[in-house]
Amino acid sequence: MHDLRGKHSIISIILPFKNEEDYLGECVDSILNQTYPYWELLLVDDHSSDRSSAMAADYAQNDARIRYFLNPNQGVIEAMKHGYAQSTGSLITRMDGDDVKTPDNLEQLLSKVAPGVLAVGKVRYFRKDGLGLGYEKYEKWVNQLTETDDNFSEVYKECVIPSPTWLVYRKDFESAGCFDSDLYPEDYDLCFRFYKAGLQTKGTSGVIHLWRDHEIRTTRTSPHYADNRFMALKLHYFKEIDFDSSKSLVVWGAGKKGKQVASYWSSEGVPFSWITDNPKKIGHNIYGTVLDNSLGFPLTEKHQIIITVADLDGQKDIAHQLKDSTSSVFWFC
Length: 333
Hints:
Layout: E1 11-17, H1 24-32, E2 39-45, H2 52-62, E3 66-70, H3 76-86, E4 91-94, E5 100-101, H4 105-110, E6 117-126, H5 133-147, E7 166-169, H6 170-175, H7 186-196, E8 200-212, H8 218-221, H9 227-242, E9 248-252, H10 256-268, E10 272-276, E11 285-286, E12 289-293, E13 303-307, H11 312-321, E14 328-331
Parallel strand pairs: 1-2, 1-4, 2-3, 6-8, 9-10, 9-13, 10-12, 13-14
Antiparallel strand pairs: 4-7, 5-8, 6-7, 11-12
Helix pairs in contact: 7-9
């Protein structure tokens, strides 16, 4: 068994769930089958109306490492807060009730975690009737970041740490604010707070988490996970963490995302330049800013650039244009 400083460390696994009777058994069994057995599982029921409540209670009755609670409030964030308040482990992670851990999940994460270091594991997505191309691309992208211990380098593109794939020391978790934020998407919000806390990432060599997609998954059905929520979160944390008022801000791209970003800075009263390579939009005045031609725009070390271009070929062209640039570049696409 993995041993830390001569004694076993307890890992607290916070698992909020609601109406997961079809998947909860496989999920909890995957925790019971861990090669590292020194854990506690805190099952927090967010007012289920199916059999998952009874299933969770049965697991708790049959294994002293498992405890079952009813969320005293409503929603996944409140459920996680309640679970964390009951936890006792020196290491913290979370789990989703419809996902599956590989048997060496905890053992692999333990081999990477350290004070100031967030252990991150590779993920594999699966779906009974086959995955869409978007999930396949996301899996490849996020696993490449994990492989190079470079997750936060692209934190403004998408959530670089899928919510059930991390392990962290309690002290570091508390430095990042635990589950105390009320911002959604809650996993992306926590990812930004890990980044803000200055934690480094260290990735596992193998896949440790099997992420299940299905039609009624919360990320598909809840308005908390709508596209505009993601952009709002990115802008909120960019302004809080990386925005440098001593530099000139540039927004690159005039599509849907570019307009969202430009609208935000306009509403914040922050001056910015707006550039595009679309000849149909050059010279247009939108939100009080006239779009300029990206070709020939003088970019220097005194600029911060937010790139919002969604087209992959367009992104490659921009990367080529910026390969020798001294500007600070942030990809929001």
